[in-house]
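Data deposition worksheet. Section B asks for the primary sequence of the deposited chain exactly as it was used as input, without tags or linkers unless they were present during the calculation. Section C holds the resulting structure in token form. Section D is free text for depositor observations; keep each observation to a single sentence. Incomplete worksheets are returned to the depositor.
Section A, Depositor: J.P.
Section B:
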Amino acid sequence: QGWRRRMMRLLLMQEQNERRPRGVAMRRWLLAAWAIAPSVCAPQQTVPPARADGSEPWQLFVHNVPYRTLGVSASAEARYHAMISADPPPAHDEGGLYHEVIRELPRIMPPYVPRRAAGQDQPAHAARVLFLLPASPYHLCKATDMADVAWGQVYAVPKGAIPLSIQRSIIDAMGNGLANYAYGNVTCPTYERVLKWLFATAEWRAAPERHVFPWVMSHLLRVSLEADMARYREPRSLYAKMGQGILVTAEDRRRDWRGARACGHVVLAPYYSPSFFMHPEVDMTRLQGQKPALVVSSNVVTWGKKSPPCHRFDIPHKPQRWGCEDERLQEAHRLRGIVSWAVNNLTKSYGARAVALQTYRSVQQYASSALENTLRRKAETYKASTFCVIPAGDSAITTRIFSIIAALCIPVFVIDLDFLPFPSDIDWASMSIQVPSQQFLLYQRDLNKPSTVNPLLFLQSMERYEPDKILRLRTNLERARWHLLYHQDGRGVPVQGAAARPSAGHALVRELERAAARRLQLTSRSSMRASGAVLNCTRRVDPAHVP
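Section C:
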């Protein structure tokens, strides 16, 4: 701590010379100490394998929630467990992510039973243990406080979550750590009672940084944690405390998400996609020339001109406002329209077999079978297509990415591959094609010029003259799709030998092990508490961090 004492003496001497109040000097010292504190983690993006040292595999401790003590009736508990045991409804892509994390981890990871050391009241926890609260917030809320609300109303906004204002919630997270969300419930009273019970357990007090929480809006928990740490130097609100754990999400919407991922704070996982998107073929040589469509694009219709271009928070000086630093996301609405235009033009001008789908979702669709029928028609279209163009949605990650890959349709990305999950297991560049967004924007600008070339025309040439390249892409795609599909020993998957294939749950476990290993490194290198260590790590690794 010698450097801290020297810094304090220098600042106090400076304040005396400038004749300023001592309180100002102390605040300056605190800010300086925080800004130049030695790094608690090396600024590297790679995480060593969790089992590189040959030690025992990671185990999972599943909390036994006393629902009856927490006021949950036996019938409500039975409804909740029945939901988790069954497969998710086809339309519940975001809700399916919660569902599968809660269901898959206990199935895949070996269980851990804590042993109490002699003369101690608390369990003697091993280091290589992850902890899971087996309570999916939206399923538990549907089974208890929202039992009389139709699925469509519970899941309509945003696709598998209780309706929540994304922009208003981040303002409250910055202001009070979501301790008093003014626009409804972040979850529901029952789930919050479960959280209070969890935070009083010995397991939580021993290892909050190794607790796993599936949470689509992971940025809210991280912001809540930062707000409480800045105000109280400890997490106080329920959602700030959750933010200490390892957060599983499809996309973190804050600018510093890369630093959070490198430090083990955020783990990216695929959305749930129903198994009927899986193409039944496993021999890629049989698909050569067998798909009737060349290219397809599937875009969700924009809800209105006033809809924000992207649902992210990337603006440094306005962290509570919508905004994207990636130009492909800044122009998302416009790009989706140009992509559909380019796909239709392939058929009109070049005779290519191209299809541009326009779909939308509504509360009525969620509450009926209409959306499932739409998804099944999309699945058949994907399966019949060689290439599928994927522009950004309202944010970088959309469910159709994983549905398209399951259908063995070669993805043509107009997004940054860095947003995609499981980079340690999947070489995304080897199974996909990228088209720069500038090509589409120039195509629209110069459409009336004779020299203008459709940015997707090269796909027609590739199909005709480069069959080996298409076979190589498809082969890699077929291997990778099993790391992105949630399934239980092949149940319901229309592919021969699916029972012997891995699930997205296996890839998720490996990512969680790497994240937990990273969090252990942080706590072992720093005298700071786990919450402060991971926040400091994010600042050091990712210079884009927004304080």
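Section D:
The chain is about 45% helix and 10% strand.
Confidence is low (pLDDT under 50) at residues 17-54, 152-161, 301-305.
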